[in-house]
Amino acid sequence: MFRALKQDSTDRRGEHAGDVDKAPTAAVDAARATARSSREASLVLAFPAPHTAEPIHQTPPAAVAAPARLARWRTAIEGWCEGRDLAPDLAVDIGSARWLRGLATMLGLGAAAIALCPDFTAVDVASAMPLDTAAGDEFRSQSIAPLALGGDSGRRMGATPLVRPLANVPERPLIQMVSTFGSGDSLARMLGRAGLGAADIAQVSGLVGGVVPADGITPGTQFDIALGKRPAAGAPRALEALAFRARFDLDLSIERKGGALALERHPIRVDETPLRIRGTVGSSLYRSARNAGAPVAAIQSYLRALDKYVSLESDLGAKDQFDIIVAYKRSAKGEKQVGDLLYAGVERGGKPSLQLVRWGGEGGMFPATAVGQARSVPIGQPVAGRVTSPYGARRHPILGYVRMHAGIDFGARYGSPIYAVADGTVAFAGRHGGHGNYVRLRHGGGLDTGYGHMSRIAVSGGTRVRAGQVIGYVGSTGLSTGPHLHFEAYRGGRTINPAGIAVTQRPQIDGRERDAFKARLRALMGVAPGAALASIAESGAEADMPRREIDKLAD
């Protein structure tokens, strides 16, 4: 440790006693006064030396004053920097003295960083040790080569005289595989990929073609194939057995018996009871039908059928009942197949409000009212949407002045289908001034309807259309501010209000088909909900049939 020593007159009086005696008294007194004032003004730091006889060295005054000056300078610089904001926010007070000071600081620091950054001179290193072929092979044998390069690293033992090459390799006596019939594939190509010879392919194609047409095999059908031994060296293997699902109700198998291939049919019992699903519409018809177990495809067909006759947004109440019947097949092996929509109904208050039945070769949905006498019925809504502008005088959104709006505008999504509101003939189909793409239908009795602003027209002039048939798609052609349908009605060539008009509806099913249609409707109404989901037991013959390997994997 350091300690402070205060020098006084007694410390050095003995050292200079002789000199003091020899000096004049006045000079001695002046010198002593000067030394005393100097000693009182400063302190001297010294190491303690209790056990040494050496004299204590005094620090020079200049060495003590230098750190003090540095401390004063540092304090002054810190005080100046504290009073000057050298790094202000350059996004504030642009152009001011404070901003220029910050810019100078940034440029200075950047210049210092650039000046002090190292260069990109290449560093000299020792060159790699050259490897000859033997050393390279040794290093490679001790590495692990990736599989992409063959994975052929590692040490190997050389063959000894005890290792003898095989003259031939014995083949497996039987190979079993599963081959899939692809889209656009043919039976011959699929069998060729499996390894069958040309003779076996021709026999199998002939046997299968007698039961299933060439294009009757569904893509994705899986074939169980068993190949036996080769009849000769280098020849393709002989087919031992083949089995596949030819139809939903039929399995086919081919086996080699007595050297020849024989076909066997295995019929599968199928239940075709339609699937009927009923429920309450609730807040969402789609979600309610899905919760009731209806397939997605059946719900979509049901909504499309209803959309031609009622508005799904305004005409259906939360307490209404939906009724869906779809074609449904079940096999004794457990497979299920959902078919087309057979019936679409809506009940209100326990009574049928709308009944649609699939009928005819074209598979159209006909209402139960299609049979009977001609009667006057209100027209349906031509598009799935809402009324955005009624019939009457209004300020035109584009022209800017008030004029007669001779129709009703339905707001709908771009590309939504537009339906004919009644049976009729296409009187005009094409471009029609401010209407844009326009179709006009003539329904008879002096009543016409017009459909404007279509994005695309789906009918041509002179053709006959039915109620609910798609005649075009919603667009925004002509004088239009957005996608919508402008729907007009004409009586005797003059426009009338389309709301509330009625048309004479003639029966779509004549007397020859009337009884069959009614019988079909009664049969569908007799289907109990959920009857198609009852268990179907296999018959004795089906239970004794050998199961395919692919069917075992499905379990």
From TrEMBL:
Biased composition (Basic and acidic residues): 1-22
BP GO annotations: proteolysis
Disordered: annotated span: 1-32
Pfam families: Peptidase_M23
Cofactors, names only: Zn(2+)
Keyword terms of this UniProt record: Hydrolase, Metal-binding, Metalloprotease, Protease, Zinc
GO MF entries: metal ion binding; metalloendopeptidase activity
Keyword hit for Protease: yes
Extent of Low complexity compositional bias: 23-32
Full protein name: Peptidoglycan DD-metalloendopeptidase family protein
